[in-house]
Amino acid sequence: MNETVLTMGIDIGSTTSKCIILKNGSEIIAQAVIPVGAGTSGPSRSIIAALEEASMSISEIQIIAATGYGRNSIKSADLTVTELSCHAKGASWLCPGVRTVIDIGGQDCKALSLSAGGDLENFVMNDKCAAGTGRFLEVMAKILELDVSDLGSLDEKAVNRVEISSTCTVFAESEVISQLAQGVDICDLVAGIHRSVAVRAASLVKRLRTKEPVFMTGGVANNKGVVRAIEKELNVRVMTNPQAQLAGAIGAAIFAFEHSLKRSD
Ligand code: ADP
Questions:
Q1: pLDDT computed for residue 240 by the predictor
Q2: Alpha helix ranges (H) inside the chain
Q3: Ligand 1: which atom is nearest the Cα of residue 135?
Q4: 134 alpha carbon to ligand 1 midpoint, in Å?
Protein backbone atom coordinates (compact mmCIF):
# COMPACT_ATOMS: atom_id res chain seq x y z
CA MET A 1 0.00 0.00 0.00
CA ASN A 2 1.48 3.35 -1.02
CA GLU A 3 -0.93 5.80 0.55
CA THR A 4 -1.50 5.92 4.31
CA VAL A 5 -5.15 5.23 5.14
CA LEU A 6 -6.42 6.77 8.38
CA THR A 7 -9.78 5.61 9.67
CA MET A 8 -11.76 6.44 12.78
CA GLY A 9 -14.04 4.19 14.81
CA ILE A 10 -16.45 5.77 17.28
CA ASP A 11 -18.42 3.66 19.78
CA ILE A 12 -21.17 5.60 21.52
CA GLY A 13 -22.50 3.55 24.41
CA SER A 14 -25.08 4.29 27.06
CA THR A 15 -22.35 5.10 29.60
CA THR A 16 -19.12 5.94 27.76
CA SER A 17 -17.94 7.32 24.39
CA LYS A 18 -14.93 5.70 22.77
CA CYS A 19 -12.88 6.79 19.75
CA ILE A 20 -10.01 5.11 17.89
CA ILE A 21 -7.80 6.34 15.04
CA LEU A 22 -6.34 3.48 13.03
CA LYS A 23 -3.49 3.63 10.51
CA ASN A 24 -3.69 1.28 7.52
CA GLY A 25 -6.10 -1.02 9.36
CA SER A 26 -3.33 -2.29 11.61
CA GLU A 27 -1.95 0.33 14.00
CA ILE A 28 -3.84 2.25 16.68
CA ILE A 29 -2.39 5.74 16.69
CA ALA A 30 -4.85 7.36 19.12
CA GLN A 31 -7.61 6.35 21.48
CA ALA A 32 -9.99 8.10 23.84
CA VAL A 33 -12.55 7.00 26.42
CA ILE A 34 -14.88 9.68 27.80
CA PRO A 35 -17.03 8.55 30.75
CA VAL A 36 -20.35 9.85 29.37
CA GLY A 37 -22.27 8.34 26.49
CA ALA A 38 -25.15 8.86 24.07
CA GLY A 39 -26.97 12.17 24.26
CA THR A 40 -24.10 13.97 26.07
CA SER A 41 -20.97 15.90 25.05
CA GLY A 42 -19.11 12.54 25.25
CA PRO A 43 -19.20 11.64 21.54
CA SER A 44 -17.72 14.94 20.32
CA ARG A 45 -15.25 15.07 23.24
CA SER A 46 -13.99 11.57 22.42
CA ILE A 47 -13.41 12.57 18.77
CA ILE A 48 -11.59 15.77 19.79
CA ALA A 49 -9.45 13.90 22.37
CA ALA A 50 -8.38 11.24 19.84
CA LEU A 51 -7.57 13.86 17.18
CA GLU A 52 -5.54 15.84 19.73
CA GLU A 53 -3.60 12.74 20.76
CA ALA A 54 -2.76 12.07 17.11
CA SER A 55 -2.10 15.81 16.41
CA MET A 56 -4.52 15.62 13.49
CA SER A 57 -7.57 17.35 12.11
CA ILE A 58 -10.73 15.47 11.17
CA SER A 59 -10.11 16.28 7.47
CA GLU A 60 -7.11 13.91 7.54
CA ILE A 61 -9.36 10.92 8.38
CA GLN A 62 -10.51 9.13 5.20
CA ILE A 63 -13.45 7.12 6.59
CA ILE A 64 -15.34 7.37 9.89
CA ALA A 65 -17.50 4.49 11.17
CA ALA A 66 -19.83 4.75 14.14
CA THR A 67 -21.23 1.99 16.30
CA GLY A 68 -23.00 1.57 19.64
CA TYR A 69 -26.32 2.62 21.02
CA GLY A 70 -25.84 6.26 19.91
CA ARG A 71 -24.24 5.54 16.52
CA ASN A 72 -26.94 7.31 14.50
CA SER A 73 -26.21 10.61 16.24
CA ILE A 74 -22.73 10.88 14.69
CA LYS A 75 -23.34 13.18 11.74
CA SER A 76 -19.74 12.98 10.49
CA ALA A 77 -19.89 9.16 10.16
CA ASP A 78 -19.56 7.70 6.65
CA LEU A 79 -21.04 4.42 7.81
CA THR A 80 -22.70 2.86 10.84
CA VAL A 81 -22.13 -0.72 11.95
CA THR A 82 -23.94 -2.76 14.64
CA GLU A 83 -22.32 -3.20 18.05
CA LEU A 84 -22.37 -6.98 17.66
CA SER A 85 -20.36 -6.89 14.43
CA CYS A 86 -17.92 -4.34 15.86
CA HIS A 87 -17.34 -6.23 19.11
CA ALA A 88 -16.76 -9.46 17.16
CA LYS A 89 -14.30 -7.68 14.85
CA GLY A 90 -12.53 -5.76 17.63
CA ALA A 91 -12.28 -8.80 19.90
CA SER A 92 -10.76 -10.87 17.06
CA TRP A 93 -8.22 -8.11 16.51
CA LEU A 94 -7.27 -7.93 20.20
CA CYS A 95 -7.37 -11.71 20.67
CA PRO A 96 -6.84 -13.53 17.36
CA GLY A 97 -8.75 -16.81 17.16
CA VAL A 98 -11.27 -15.88 19.88
CA ARG A 99 -14.44 -18.05 19.68
CA THR A 100 -16.58 -16.60 22.51
CA VAL A 101 -16.87 -12.92 23.40
CA ILE A 102 -18.49 -11.66 26.61
CA ASP A 103 -19.26 -7.96 26.38
CA ILE A 104 -20.46 -6.26 29.57
CA GLY A 105 -21.12 -2.57 29.12
CA GLY A 106 -22.94 0.12 31.03
CA GLN A 107 -26.47 -1.14 30.46
CA ASP A 108 -26.29 -4.50 28.76
CA CYS A 109 -24.49 -7.81 28.63
CA LYS A 110 -23.93 -9.85 25.47
CA ALA A 111 -22.38 -13.21 24.67
CA LEU A 112 -21.17 -13.76 21.11
CA SER A 113 -20.13 -16.96 19.42
CA LEU A 114 -17.58 -16.59 16.59
CA SER A 115 -16.50 -18.98 13.85
CA ALA A 116 -12.85 -20.02 13.53
CA GLY A 117 -12.59 -17.32 10.84
CA GLY A 118 -13.87 -14.62 13.24
CA ASP A 119 -17.41 -14.31 11.80
CA LEU A 120 -20.31 -13.77 14.19
CA GLU A 121 -22.27 -17.03 14.35
CA ASN A 122 -24.70 -16.49 17.21
CA PHE A 123 -25.38 -14.20 20.15
CA VAL A 124 -27.56 -13.77 23.24
CA MET A 125 -28.06 -10.60 25.21
CA ASN A 126 -29.63 -9.05 28.29
CA ASP A 127 -30.58 -5.43 27.72
CA LYS A 128 -33.78 -5.48 29.75
CA CYS A 129 -32.43 -5.41 33.29
CA ALA A 130 -29.58 -3.53 35.03
CA ALA A 131 -28.57 -6.63 37.02
CA GLY A 132 -25.51 -8.21 35.43
CA THR A 133 -24.36 -4.95 33.81
CA GLY A 134 -21.97 -2.08 34.57
CA ARG A 135 -24.92 -0.11 35.93
CA PHE A 136 -25.38 -2.68 38.71
CA LEU A 137 -21.70 -2.28 39.65
CA GLU A 138 -22.02 1.51 39.60
CA VAL A 139 -25.07 1.41 41.89
CA MET A 140 -23.26 -0.92 44.31
CA ALA A 141 -20.02 1.13 44.24
CA LYS A 142 -22.03 4.22 45.16
CA ILE A 143 -23.56 2.50 48.20
CA LEU A 144 -20.10 1.35 49.27
CA GLU A 145 -18.74 4.89 48.71
CA LEU A 146 -16.24 3.56 46.21
CA ASP A 147 -15.37 4.14 42.57
CA VAL A 148 -16.07 1.23 40.18
CA SER A 149 -12.34 1.13 39.45
CA ASP A 150 -11.68 0.20 43.15
CA LEU A 151 -13.88 -2.92 43.12
CA GLY A 152 -11.43 -5.35 41.44
CA SER A 153 -8.63 -4.94 43.99
CA LEU A 154 -11.01 -5.19 46.99
CA ASP A 155 -12.39 -8.47 45.62
CA GLU A 156 -8.87 -9.95 45.83
CA LYS A 157 -8.92 -9.47 49.62
CA ALA A 158 -12.27 -11.24 50.19
CA VAL A 159 -12.21 -14.12 52.67
CA ASN A 160 -15.88 -15.11 53.08
CA ARG A 161 -17.80 -14.06 49.99
CA VAL A 162 -21.29 -12.80 50.82
CA GLU A 163 -24.17 -14.30 48.80
CA ILE A 164 -26.37 -11.66 47.21
CA SER A 165 -29.69 -13.46 46.82
CA SER A 166 -31.75 -10.73 45.10
CA THR A 167 -31.73 -10.87 41.33
CA CYS A 168 -33.12 -7.34 40.98
CA THR A 169 -30.79 -4.31 41.26
CA VAL A 170 -33.19 -2.40 43.54
CA PHE A 171 -33.62 -5.33 45.96
CA ALA A 172 -29.90 -6.16 45.80
CA GLU A 173 -29.21 -2.54 46.75
CA SER A 174 -31.34 -2.94 49.91
CA GLU A 175 -29.64 -6.26 50.64
CA VAL A 176 -26.16 -4.69 50.41
CA ILE A 177 -27.22 -1.76 52.62
CA SER A 178 -28.53 -4.23 55.20
CA GLN A 179 -25.28 -6.27 55.09
CA LEU A 180 -23.26 -3.08 55.54
CA ALA A 181 -25.41 -2.15 58.53
CA GLN A 182 -24.60 -5.56 60.05
CA GLY A 183 -20.89 -4.79 59.70
CA VAL A 184 -20.07 -7.28 56.95
CA ASP A 185 -16.59 -6.83 55.48
CA ILE A 186 -16.63 -4.66 52.34
CA CYS A 187 -14.25 -6.98 50.45
CA ASP A 188 -16.59 -9.96 51.10
CA LEU A 189 -19.54 -7.87 49.90
CA VAL A 190 -17.69 -6.79 46.74
CA ALA A 191 -16.89 -10.44 45.95
CA GLY A 192 -20.61 -11.26 46.33
CA ILE A 193 -21.56 -8.38 44.03
CA HIS A 194 -19.09 -9.62 41.42
CA ARG A 195 -20.41 -13.16 41.65
CA SER A 196 -23.92 -11.88 41.08
CA VAL A 197 -22.78 -10.22 37.81
CA ALA A 198 -20.76 -13.31 36.85
CA VAL A 199 -23.69 -15.71 37.34
CA ARG A 200 -25.79 -13.65 34.94
CA ALA A 201 -23.03 -13.36 32.33
CA ALA A 202 -22.25 -17.08 32.60
CA SER A 203 -25.92 -18.00 32.12
CA LEU A 204 -25.90 -16.09 28.80
CA VAL A 205 -22.66 -17.77 27.68
CA LYS A 206 -24.02 -21.21 28.59
CA ARG A 207 -26.98 -20.63 26.25
CA LEU A 208 -24.37 -20.63 23.47
CA ARG A 209 -21.98 -23.56 23.33
CA THR A 210 -18.94 -22.14 25.20
CA LYS A 211 -15.98 -22.39 22.87
CA GLU A 212 -12.48 -21.36 23.88
CA PRO A 213 -10.65 -19.00 23.68
CA VAL A 214 -13.06 -16.78 25.62
CA PHE A 215 -12.39 -13.03 25.58
CA MET A 216 -14.13 -10.28 27.52
CA THR A 217 -14.83 -6.81 26.06
CA GLY A 218 -16.62 -3.73 27.42
CA GLY A 219 -15.81 -1.50 30.35
CA VAL A 220 -16.49 -4.19 32.94
CA ALA A 221 -13.49 -6.12 31.54
CA ASN A 222 -11.44 -3.53 33.49
CA ASN A 223 -12.77 -5.13 36.67
CA LYS A 224 -10.52 -8.12 37.33
CA GLY A 225 -12.85 -9.32 40.11
CA VAL A 226 -15.70 -9.80 37.63
CA VAL A 227 -13.37 -11.48 35.11
CA ARG A 228 -12.18 -13.96 37.77
CA ALA A 229 -15.74 -14.60 38.97
CA ILE A 230 -16.86 -15.40 35.39
CA GLU A 231 -13.89 -17.76 35.02
CA LYS A 232 -15.06 -19.61 38.14
CA GLU A 233 -18.67 -19.80 36.94
CA LEU A 234 -17.73 -21.09 33.49
CA ASN A 235 -14.68 -23.05 34.57
CA VAL A 236 -12.69 -21.69 31.62
CA ARG A 237 -9.94 -19.09 31.26
CA VAL A 238 -11.36 -15.68 30.32
CA MET A 239 -8.85 -13.45 28.60
CA THR A 240 -8.95 -9.69 28.45
CA ASN A 241 -6.78 -6.78 27.40
CA PRO A 242 -6.18 -3.19 28.60
CA GLN A 243 -7.94 -2.02 25.39
CA ALA A 244 -10.97 -4.33 25.83
CA GLN A 245 -13.30 -1.39 26.53
CA LEU A 246 -12.29 -0.04 23.11
CA ALA A 247 -13.14 -3.26 21.22
CA GLY A 248 -16.28 -1.81 19.61
CA ALA A 249 -14.45 1.33 18.45
CA ILE A 250 -11.53 -0.77 17.17
CA GLY A 251 -13.99 -2.97 15.24
CA ALA A 252 -15.65 0.13 13.75
CA ALA A 253 -12.26 1.56 12.68
CA ILE A 254 -11.41 -1.78 10.98
CA PHE A 255 -14.79 -1.77 9.16
CA ALA A 256 -14.00 1.79 8.04
CA PHE A 257 -10.63 0.58 6.71
CA GLU A 258 -12.26 -2.33 4.83
CA HIS A 259 -14.77 0.15 3.40
CA SER A 260 -11.90 2.34 2.18
CA LEU A 261 -10.38 -0.65 0.37
CA LYS A 262 -13.70 -1.32 -1.42
CA ARG A 263 -13.93 2.34 -2.38
CA SER A 264 -10.47 2.32 -3.94
CA ASP A 265 -11.21 -0.90 -5.98
P1 ADP B 1 -21.14 1.32 27.18
O2 ADP B 1 -20.37 0.99 25.92
O3 ADP B 1 -22.37 0.49 27.35
O4 ADP B 1 -21.36 2.77 27.37
P5 ADP B 1 -18.72 0.40 28.55
O6 ADP B 1 -18.49 -0.85 27.76
O7 ADP B 1 -17.79 1.53 28.30
O8 ADP B 1 -20.24 0.87 28.40
O9 ADP B 1 -18.73 -0.02 30.11
C10 ADP B 1 -19.09 0.89 31.11
C11 ADP B 1 -18.99 0.17 32.44
O12 ADP B 1 -17.64 -0.25 32.62
C13 ADP B 1 -19.28 1.05 33.63
O14 ADP B 1 -20.65 0.96 33.97
C15 ADP B 1 -18.39 0.46 34.73
O16 ADP B 1 -19.10 -0.54 35.47
C17 ADP B 1 -17.29 -0.27 33.98
N18 ADP B 1 -15.97 0.38 34.07
C19 ADP B 1 -15.51 1.39 33.32
N20 ADP B 1 -14.25 1.72 33.67
C21 ADP B 1 -13.90 0.90 34.66
C22 ADP B 1 -12.72 0.72 35.45
N23 ADP B 1 -11.63 1.47 35.30
N24 ADP B 1 -12.72 -0.27 36.37
C25 ADP B 1 -13.79 -1.05 36.55
N26 ADP B 1 -14.94 -0.93 35.85
C27 ADP B 1 -15.00 0.01 34.91
A1: 97
A2: 42-54, 83-94, 134-143, 151-156, 169-181, 186-207, 224-234, 247-263
A3: 14
A4: 6
